[in-house]
Amino acid sequence: MMYLTSTISLDKIKHTQFEPDSITFSASDENPPLEREFYAAALELLALIHEDLPKAKPPLD
Prior knowledge:
Layout (H helix, E strand, L loop, with lengths): L1 E6 L2 H5 L7 E6 L8 H17 L9
Antiparallel strand pairs: 1-2
C-alpha cells in the first residue's frame, strides 16, 4: 500500500502555483513511488475543482 502526505497552501492554488510545500511518500516494497508528473497533474486537477466549487451565499431575507 502507498501513502502520500502533502501540503500546499491555498494561496499557491489561487495563483496556479502547484508546487507543494511538502511531500512525504511511504510505500511498501511492492509499489514504486508515484512519479512527480502524476502528482503535479493531481494538484492541478484539485485546483480546477476548487475553482468550480460554488461559493457560500448568505440566505435571502
